[in-house]
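Entry under discussion copied across for reference:
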Amino acid sequence: MANTPSARKRIRQTQRRTAVNAARKSRIRTFLRKVESALASGDAAAAQEAFRAAQPEIQRGVTKGVLHKNTANRKVSRLAGRVKALSAPAAV
C-alpha cells in the first residue's frame, strides 16, 4: 500500500485517468459498432455517414493517447475500404 502522500496522489490520478480512458475507448468502440452494423445491413448511405462520424473519434483517441497512431490509421483504412466497396456498383 502507498505510504507517502505523493504515492497516494499518484494512485488517485491513475484511477481517474483509467476511468477517463475506459470511457474514451468505449466511445470509440460504439462508433465502430455503428459502422459495422451499417456495413452488415448493406446500407451504403448509412455506412458512409457512420464512417464520417467514426473517423474523427478514432483520431481523437490517438491525440488523447488511448490508441496508437498506426492502429487508428489501420482501422480507418480498413473501414474506408469496406465502405467504398459497399458504395461501388457491383461488377458482374
